[in-house]
Prior knowledge:
Elements: H1 4-12, E1 21-22, H2 33-49, H3 51-57, H4 59-73, E2 80-83, H5 86-94, E3 104-107, H6 113-126, E4 129-132, H7 143-153, E5 157-163, H8 175-185, E6 189-192, H9 204-207, E7 211-215, E8 227-231, H10 233-238, E9 250-254, E10 257-260, H11 274-290, H12 292-311, E11 316-318, E12 329-333, H13 338-347, E13 350-351, E14 353-356, H14 361-367, E15 371-375, H15 383-396
Helix pairs in contact: 2-3, 2-11, 4-11, 7-8, 12-15
Amino acid sequence: MPEPAQLRRWRADTPGTAHRNHLNNAGAALMPTTVLDAIAEHLELEATTGGYEAADAKSTEIEHGYEHLAELVGARARNMAVVANATAGFVQAVSSFDFAPGDVIVTTRCDYTSNQIQYLALHERLGVEVVHAEDLPEGGVDPDSVRHAVASSGPRCKLVAVSWIPTNSGLVQDVESVGQVCEDLGVPYLVDACQAVGQIPIDVAKLRCDYLSATARKFLRGPRGIGFMFASDRALARGDHPLFVDMRGARWISTGRYEVDPTARRYEGWELPYALVLGQSAAAEYALGVGIDVAHERAWTLAARLRTGLAAIPRVRVLDRGARQCAIVTTAIDGMDARTLVTHLAGKGINTVPSLREYGQYDFAAKNVESAIRYSPHYYNTEAEVDAAIAETAYFLGN
């Protein structure tokens, strides 16, 4: 656990903690002042010197940002690309593959909503077959089921894609074991780490992934509207690049030929919001300063406290499954739409968010719920804030 002085410093660095009990870090965490300052400073520079000129003036700091992001995931700067968000990075990675009718994508029943919709779109438009591997009895994808699905598909299987942590649950999927399966069978592997970055130590070498996508705004504590992705040396050497590569990711070297950038920046677009790019860099640097191990232990401990307290309240059912459960806590309220409780808590200065069945059709159907409330503490939250959320939930439900 952190020393009291550490916690005071984190909260002093986070202006929002003075006004809100913020338990929606899985949505968008409160930004530290270093992030706010980086964004504001660059916007001021753009206003006074010009947008292109401001980016040129901050070119060194922008380059350092790739190093910070690489350190977060155990990679090198050449393997990192800045994208609009985790979904944008996911789409860029998926678009690297020339799918044909009958090709197979193997995924999980707990993959992120947008990813599931995109799989369906690929099925409808290109005839791609989407195979959902089975879950383990305790929850989370069964790596042996992935192995069977890939092996039985043979050369038709072009990609395995897994959301490490789904948006609608505290479940942590066994992405390392799935990565071992993909390496054994020689199938490209994409990890959506949107909810993992900032609350779980990440080493892409251990994941054995070709691609990993992430966002700045969640547990990394960066701004909205920016994210990043990792592309492995293996993927770059294959010549993988997005379907709609643009002039930042490639050079138009003759009227009939283009050449992609040798680094992961082939996945970037020309127009980047450099104030947010610098804000994301500052968030990554701050997270590294705190220590991902420290953030991980603290956030997960607070989440466990939340689960225990909420589970003791009549009518409250904790929904999280899996051998490991993270800093996302989801509960259903018997006989109540979760949005009603979210609205009440917001009126008391406690930030949470509802999760609806459409966000996790397979998961919510199995749990027989239509809505859930999602609490997600982070390392800068206090035990008192967690206990206040539990007490206010109990009070609202008449306990």
